[in-house]
Amino acid sequence: MSSMNREKLNLRAYQEELVVEANEGKNVLICAPTGSGKTVVAAHIVRNHILKTTAKAKIVQAETGLSKICFIAPTKPLVEQQKIVLERYVGDICEVQDICGSASNSSSMCLNRQVIDIASVVVVTPQIIVNMLDAKPERGYEDVFEEFKLTRFSMIIFDEAHHANDQHPYNVIMQSYHSLSKPIDINRDQGQKLPQIIALTASLGIGNSSTKLAEAIKHAQLMCANLSVNTISRVRQNVTEMKNYTSEVSDEITLVDANDFHNLGFYKVLVKELKSLEEKVFSVPEAKRDVMLRNALKDKSNSSHLEQGYENWLCTCQKNVVPKYPSMSQESRSKLMQCFDHMLIFYHAIELLRLFGTAAALSYIVEENKSFLATKSSKTTSHIQATMSHLRQQPESVSSMFKALTTILSKQFSEKNDSRVLIFALTRFQCKCLASLLAEKTSKASADDSGSNSSNQRKKVTDFDQGKTKILCVTSVAEEGLDISACNLVVQYNSITNEIAHVQRRGMSRAKKAKSVILTFDSRVKTRAELNQLREKLMADALEEIDRKPALYMSQIPEIAKNLRQAWLLKNDLISQTSVTLDYTSLQQKFAVVCRSCGAFLCYSDHIVLNNGSQHVCVDPDYLNQITLSVPSDRLTQDRGVMMNPASFRHYCAKRSPTGVCGVDLGSFVSHKTGVNLPILTCKSIVFLKVSLDHNSKKVDDTAQYTRYSFKLWRDVKKIFEPKHLSTEDLLAMKTASASAFRKVVQDISMLKIV
């Protein structure tokens, strides 16, 4: 603790208005615009809480205890940012620490508990708290296990509190909070030592509400019930002052006529390839003779290559139809998977062609085919090589969308040369494309937020603040409260989400005469943007209506909360009953785990165990003979220590066939505290085949019709079996094989010359 760098907290009048109920000890939802200084408001509440609690503890001398505050932010960059702000304002009176990530191993959780014990204020990501609440004692240590409870804190602050809904970790934490009081202690009765809840948001949203005011009000009430608050703190008296510090910027929606790409030779090559691949899909023997398979493969809903329905069809076939269909040879299955993989690449390339032009589309195709070209035979890759060569020969073209963007930027910088422009794109790859094109086509520096670590991202934001970078291309990570300086222009580049993000993004246009532009070639994006504007107004109307009749609407929240609690208890009971059933049925079923792409046998389901409650690892030593280990090229650095960290390694399917090596990415590695490196399996890369209990050959019959299961997430795998927990026997079984596998690959890396 030090007062040297401490800044004095002088709240503005509207901020003083926001803290009144919180300083009275109530559970409060603070709703204020982006840029209004909600974190400063939170720092004032924290300081007031600490000073009051400390003074009270001195008076009663023991039983009350000292304050301990948990400030929860949804992302690591936000945690780091909010810690800095809190240290600035309360670091002279207390210790502020941060914890990031989602590690659930016992040593990490023990360390996290120590940090919480030491610090008066701890800033964390929500999964840290969820994992600590869910922690179970290790076998043999039940008597010394200390259950973690939220009563350890005297105050919990949720940043970006609109996330506290459905199965978000925020809501999981609040379900634990609600379980501590019976009935739900919405008024924080002094007899219940529950932490005070402070929720911060710029926008509550309206959930699934349509255009009805009553539904929007119900959503606001639901959010209050989830967060156990019965007071909404908004600026009502000092609105004019608040408007002086925040911006009221309306969106300009620009629909670009971008149909000129139809005449490009580049586009025609891609469409020809898609049609050719579609023909290959229906040429497999099973598709010719099996009506059900043929119909499943044909179900495109008459979508063209430019529509979302086409992508949906490709994804459904790739993730469900092909992996799960029982009556299919592995040769046909592999051929279909390869076809759909390339069709998805070409579909996304067309999207990039429309967004940026030929250079971005070609770059994407080359990048996505690197692994395919490196692992497959020349005969297998000859066609894609020829296609890429043909694409390179096409005349280069820049999209109408990008031309429209450069026109907007040119006008902005001609009006104000020192402007700051924030451009939102959907993906990191799109950010990189924008940054590269803008650096090439304009005289203004640009950067993207896709850095490999948070310090890299912070540097880019700092450069933007200081004017070293005038244009910053970002993904949705920046809309979650990151402290990006006042922007003169925010552009949403064919990127639209919901009304909450709509408010957050526009709120970053904080400079005077700032503008916000939604630029799109898609009429559906334009329609969604217009709908977001309506939903934003409906949200504001709902809060105004609650303000008019607070006694009516807020008095209903305890009953809503009570019903929620009953629903949660019922759900937990059902989960417990299902778990008991699974414990029995898991013993009655066995599954062969195979590669999703080539069908190679990898292990049996009873060799998949849980490490630290969340990581699904394979503990069959023979598995290491079915894979290759390597460090991805984007992780190769001069720092050998970083490269040789087991967490840097990926493992890939090593099955060879006449077409080459399979090469599917099967997952990463984790280093157990005993030093044994264990392979973590990626759920979407594998398929489960139901086999007999006496099936021990460690191979599958290509002609057999197994019942096949494919899942995207491990939590869904529980529908068929429940993995056991990692045991000492498992570690001993993997120790020698794992050490041998890593020794060889580390020797190979040691010989690499990193340029």
UniProtKB/TrEMBL annotation:
Record localization: Cytoplasm
Domain RLR CTR residues, every copy: 581-731
Top-level taxon of the source organism: Eukaryota
Domain Helicase ATP-binding: 19-204
Entry EC number(s): 3.6.4.13
UniProtKB keywords: Antiviral defense, ATP-binding, Cytoplasm, Helicase, Hydrolase, Immunity, Innate immunity, Metal-binding, Nucleotide-binding, RNA-binding, Zinc
Gene Ontology CC entries for this record: cytoplasm
Gene Ontology molecular functions: ATP binding; hydrolase activity; metal ion binding; RNA binding; RNA helicase activity
Domain Helicase C-terminal: start-end pairs: 401-565
One of the protein's GO biological processes: innate immune response
Gene3D superfamilies in the cross-refs: 1.20.1320.30, P-loop containing nucleotide triphosphate hydrolases, RIG-I-like receptor, C-terminal regulatory domain
Reaction catalysed by this enzyme: ATP + H2O = ADP + phosphate + H(+)
Protein family according to the UniProt entry: Belongs to the helicase family. RLR subfamily.
Name of the protein: RNA helicase
Species name: Ditylenchus dipsaci
UniProt lineage: Eukaryota, Metazoa, Ecdysozoa, Nematoda, Chromadorea
